[in-house]
Design goal:
Blueprint: H1 8-24, H2 29-39, H3 43-55, H4 61-73, H5 79-88, H6 94-108, E1 111-112, E2 119-122, E3 128-131, E4 136-141, E5 146-158, E6 167-171, E7 174-178, E8 182-188, E9 191-198, E10 201-205, E11 214-216, E12 220-225, E13 230-235, E14 248-255, H7 256-263, E15 270-273, H8 276-280, E16 282-288, H9 292-300, E17 305-311, E18 314-319
Parallel strand pairs: 5-6, 15-18
Antiparallel strand pairs: 1-4, 2-3, 3-5, 4-5, 5-8, 6-7, 7-10, 8-9, 9-12, 10-11, 12-13, 14-16, 17-18
Helix pairs in contact: 1-2, 1-3, 1-4, 7-9
Length: about 325
């Protein structure tokens, strides 16, 4: 017997219930497993989960209130209703804003790394991934394709060649596809970068700036900002590709906001840039992650910034 596919409103309703369950008992592995199983039921389930998680990633406490309103008024749950409801009470959800996104990532991801942790993952096709700190991955392997969603952070992919099953990494709407190669993908403060250790990687996006694709060879890299549409390209030595695996960050005219986000994966708690003008400046250099706070200071100093660790939960970058 074929299972009847629920309509979109019902799927959104179920996704909200699952997130409520997760935020009420975030340490419960049963809740996380229920979410994974629900998402795996089909693409419509995954789309519904993505919509709810994206809109309410910073305001999970609103979900219970919105759910009560929906039950009382018997209204459908539209994307517009979610957005209006979330924005109206965003200020009351500070606690979930700090910790909620990480909980939602845990539910969406197949693999998660902690702050300061570098983790190796052996994939079912014989490839392997080296995850950077504070990163998250979700696998979508089929008989035709091998797709990995980089949900957060950075990862280095060493791909086993299989011409019949392309290997692609999806990060923020950007696809990096290879047949047999090793390459690094990073998402920092909205800027997505791809650099190639060896082999060839095709990089493209639905954005007009990259819809025709760019082919990268050994030592080549590209950084793409989806908001501005800006593209930067260059080359670096092979041993500088994914150098974060050796506690080194190599930057070439990168925004401070992107570098702070990357280095911040080695710093406990949240790292916040209090002065947006600092984040827009570009710097180059080699930064040692063995002392991440000192590396942050070296990054922001050219822009007149300073780093203050307020507590183990918060580090602030501000003007001098």
């Amino acid at each position: 017997m074929n299972e009847t596919m629920p309509d979109q409103n019902q799927l959104l309703d179920e996704a909200i219930d699952l997130i409520i369950r997760l935020q009420n008992d975030p340490g419960n592995p049963v809740a996380i497993e229920m979410i994974r199983a629900w998402r795996a039921r089909g693409i419509k389930y995954e789309e519904a989960w993505t919509r709810v998680a994206k809109v309410h990633g910073a305001s999970g406490s609103i979900l219970m209130e919105k759910r009560r309103i929906e039950r009382r008024e018997s209204l459908g749950l539209s994307r517009r209703n979610f957005m209006v409801g979330g924005l109206a009470v965003l200020g009351a959800a500070t606690s979930f804003y700090t910790f909620g996104p990480h909980l939602l990532l845990q539910a969406r991801a197949d693999y998660v790394s902690a702050k300061g942790e570098i983790r190796r993952i052996d994939l079912p096709d014989g490839s392997f991934v080296t995850m950077g700190p504070d990163s998250a991955l979700a696998l979508a392997f089929s008989e035709e394709r091998r797709i990995i969603h980089l949900l957060a952070g950075m990862s280095y992919f060493n791909v086993k060649s299989d011409p019949n099953r392309p290997f692609s990494v999806l990060a923020g709407g950007l696809y990096a596809t290879a047949l047999g190669t090793a390459f690094d993908v990073s998402s920092d403060a909205g800027v997505i970068s791809v650099s190639v250790d060896h082999g060839l990687v095709d990089v493209r996006s639905s954005d007009t700036a990259l819809e025709t694709g760019i082919e990268l060879g050994q030592g080549q890299w590209v950084a793409f900002d989806p908001v501005s549409g800006g593209i930067a390209r260059g080359e670096r030595e092979k041993d500088q590709i994914a150098s974060w695996r050796n506690n080194i960050v190599v930057a070439e005219k990168e925004t401070i906001s992107a570098l702070v986000a990357r280095i911040g994966r080695w710093v406990p708690g949240r790292v916040v840039i209090a002065d947006p003008s600092i984040g827009n400046e570009r710097v180059s250099g080699i930064f040692d992650l063995n002392d991440p706070l000192l590396a942050l200071q070296a990054v922001v100093h050219p822009a007149g910034g300073r780093v203050r660790q307020i507590s183990s939960f918060l580090t602030v970058v501000s003007s001098l």
